Amino acid sequence: MNNHTVVYPGSPYPLGATWDGKGVNFALYADNATGVELCLFNTTADEVEAAKIKIRERSHQVWHCYIPDLKPGQLYGFRVHGPYEPQNGHRFNAKKLLIDPYAKAIAGTINWSDALFSYKMGDPEEDLSFSDVDSVPFIPKCVVIDQSFDWEGDRAPRIAYNESIIYETHVKGFTKLHPEIPEEIRGTYAGMAHPVTINYLKELGITAVELMPVHHFVADRHLVDRGLTNYWGYNTIGFFAPDARYAASGVLGEQVSEFKHLVKTLHKAGIEVILDVVYNHTGEGNHMGPTLSFRGIDNASYYRLTEDKRYYMDYTGTGNTLNAYLPNVLRLMMDSLRYWIQDMHVDGFRFDLASTLARELHEVNTLSAFFDIIYQDPVISQVKLIAEPWDIGEGGYQVGKFPPGWAEWNGKYRDCIRDYWRGADSMLGEFAERFTGSSDLYKNDYRSPTASINFVTAHDGFTLHDLVSYNDKHNEANLDDNRDGEDHNRSWNCGAEGPTDDEVVLALRRRQQRNFFATLLLSQGVPMIVAGDEQGRTQQGNNNCYCQDNEMSWVHWEHVDQDLMQFTRQLIALRKAHPAFCRRRWFQGQPIKGIGLEDIAWFLPDGSEMSDEHWSHDFAKSMAVFFNGKGLHASGPQGEQIVDDNFYIIFNAHYEPLEFCLPAQKYGHTWTKIIDTCDMQVQTGSEEYKAEQKINVDARSVVVLSHKLMH
């Protein structure tokens, strides 16, 4: 290959590098650029391009060319010419090799060097100075891929939200320590697709894995310099490329096929794949950050700049914010989403800091262009769309305010359930709202209970084990003097901070974990479990493991709380077997025609129904709820009415045992105990009780009783 390579005009669409079997079309959006060069490389180690091709064709804002005879595996990047005027928002520097925003694969990771910055490091002019050092040796090359793949008739599972059990996990951390997975594929897409992994997820009862970011990302220099890394991956630089770090098979396009194999394998097991995606910012940081892609291609056409265009709007806490107000950025986001659905077959997305995407000029507007486009898109609108409904900007907390068709991580659910079980002063009324699907947040705009993604823990924060073992965060390993991470965790250590030999404390911690799981899996809405919580995984009190790519973050398969795991598995099976716990519609709280009973009723410990005044007592910690199995207001696939057993669920968050009187016979003449969180497992129904009989409920525990109906 040389500079005499044959070049045809090519096409401005599709963007990126596209192999058609005879050659490769290259297309790059760069509105303010004055020139673009395509650089071709023979190996990943090349420090100089084998060919530099000046792209002469420009259609509107897109630079394009076609080169015959190029094949998949070809390495490339761009150099983009234009003014270097940071004060005017322009940061062009043709000495910097740039990653194609539409690259389908990226061959490796950044090797940090001052050469990756467009300004001279240490210069008193800071980013207003200009660096003429070439960055080629330090930046990974893009890869032309062959998009063909044998999907073997793959079909999306299309599991309804109300039947979903979401499992948030990290591709590397989930299998890195698994002794039954071959060592060479641990921590990779292939390891995630291994039969041992798949069988575990199926036996647990998971219907969807929510993968923490797999878009190719940047490990921040300040972390790498301190011997840390960006483990979580919320620092995207390639919105189309599966990260090469998680590939066992290679980085020259093999990572794409390996990821597709993972999706195909999960689908065969009836498990959906949801991606945690970060479209709110990129890994290029603030005005002092590196020039890796977007900044050097056309800074002003990708980022939100302040009135002084040298600086970036930062709604994300990462230094920059992608400008979802601009058509080319919206197109990038939508093209990426469609690519992961159509080419990679994923089933949905969880949008990190989604409020950022809703910002028009400054205010959060959930009817912004981003949501309008998704709403009318025939591909994107049909998959699961989950918002993390906040960012760090003013007015960024938007729980309950996303449009119909969206589900949301319900942060209010997390906070309320944590407060209830740690014994904090909180109103029973809010607990009842959260347990029944948060109608106060979602009902008024025609959304259903499944708009609420319920969670007690997430990747960000304490694990469930640590939630009941620590009052305070212990983030010293992050080398930030324990200043990072959330200070207000709503956690309770049950009487001792961290590891202890006190059996009373340990027994209480085990029960509290069962209480959280029972509450989560019996709540209306969609439950989300964090990988390892069902095993009792600890992070030693670190509530911000974003930089810990080590055993602190990984799942420990040889240290599993088997009792807790069995309890969780049985709870999930119970939820799946009973539509009463996964309703598609709201409780109405009205008598059901022909029965005279409400679909739901709340009771005091003495067996009397709760009145309005009882909901506002912040000292009250105990109550019971009745679910009427004939009050589901739902039909099956053939229009048949769905009915279930009656259930009576008793919550006692009080620090002492309480006696509960079961309700009158009209609610059920005999009741069978099926769950008691004081025990290690879901019951088989050996204990039976009559209507109005008294039942002793231990301190800090949940008891579930069922009354079988003739269906």
TrEMBL record:
Gene3D superfamilies: Glycosidases, Golgi alpha-mannosidase II, Immunoglobulins
GO molecular function, one term: amylo-alpha-1,6-glucosidase activity
Keywords, alphabetical: Glycosidase, Hydrolase
Keyword Calcium: no
Domain Glycosyl hydrolase family 13 catalytic, residue spans: 168-575
GO BP of this protein: glycogen catabolic process
Record-linked NCBIfam families: glgX_debranch
Family note: Belongs to the glycosyl hydrolase 13 family.
Alphabetized PANTHER family for the sequence: GLYCOGEN DEBRANCHING ENZYME
Protein name per Swiss-Prot or TrEMBL: Glycogen debranching protein GlgX
Organism: Chitinophaga agri
Encoding gene per record: glgX
